[in-house]
Task: inverse folding
């Protein structure tokens, strides 16, 4: 048996939106302690590592570990019908293959949607040594990425002991965005050695835009020409982390 209740529909909707950036069909690991998802996008360029412990939910019941695969886009259609203060309940139907979605506010709506065949793929956590760790406001990070998008489809992220730099260069225009240590947008910066790596803005922008609604703080970790780790701080010990492979530049 599995059932959960969320008192804030927006919280669930925002998280589902963040997940939908990378995956259409999401296979959740459900345990008595938490709801988890670790998956790669179809091109295997990016990965999401998500976990909400049972303390996030108003009610959480799981009698035995199980997997649940759903089309996250179809779930979002239903969640977008809910107002912020509506209560959302999800439950696996006693009849196999169905997820019950109940939205309660000024009136009650009951939906059912099919579950899909769960993926058996085990996605390991990348083992990477990071030389830079920068803690920023998600708003400051989002603005820097939006500035870079004005001139290019990729951005080089650099860091030294004093600053975090976003460098974008297009055919006609270029942009350099510096966030210095001690500024309101850069909350902390640890640099073992100066590093730089280039990433696709199509991925980076969507990840940051969607995740900024779930968190005010983001932590970036990267090394030269290695994947970047983006961790969006969650309440009640929740986890929302993305890994994005670098774009390898050719001379």
Result:
């Amino acid at each position: 048996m599995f059932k959960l209740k969320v008192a804030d529909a927006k919280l669930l909707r925002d998280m589902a939106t963040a997940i939908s950036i990378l995956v259409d069909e999401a296979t959740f690991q459900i345990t008595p302690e938490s709801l988890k998802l670790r998956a790669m996008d179809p091109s295997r360029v990016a990965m999401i590592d998500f976990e909400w412990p049972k303390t996030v939910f108003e009610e959480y019941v799981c009698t035995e570990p199980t997997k649940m695969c759903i089309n996250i886009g179809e779930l979002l259609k239903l969640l977008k019908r809910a107002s912020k203060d509506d209560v959302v309940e999800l439950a696996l139907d006693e009849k196999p293959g169905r997820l019950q979605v109940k939205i309660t506010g000024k009136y009650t709506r009951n939906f059912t949607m099919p579950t899909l065949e769960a993926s058996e793929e085990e996605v390991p956590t990348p083992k990477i040594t990071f030389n830079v760790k920068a803690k920023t406001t998600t708003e400051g990070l989002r603005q820097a990425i939006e500035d870079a998008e004005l001139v290019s489809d990729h951005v080089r992220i650099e860091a030294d002991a004093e600053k975090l730099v976003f460098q974008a260069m297009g055919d006609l225009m270029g942009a350099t965005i510096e966030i210095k240590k001690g500024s309101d947008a850069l909350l902390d910066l640890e640099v073992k050695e100066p590093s730089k790596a280039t990433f696709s803005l199509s991925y980076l922008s969507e990840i940051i835009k969607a995740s900024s609604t779930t968190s005010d703080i983001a932590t970036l970790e990267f090394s030269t020409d290695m994947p970047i780790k983006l961790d969006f701080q969650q309440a009640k010990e929740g986890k929302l982390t993305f890994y994005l492979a670098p774009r390898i530049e050719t001379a």
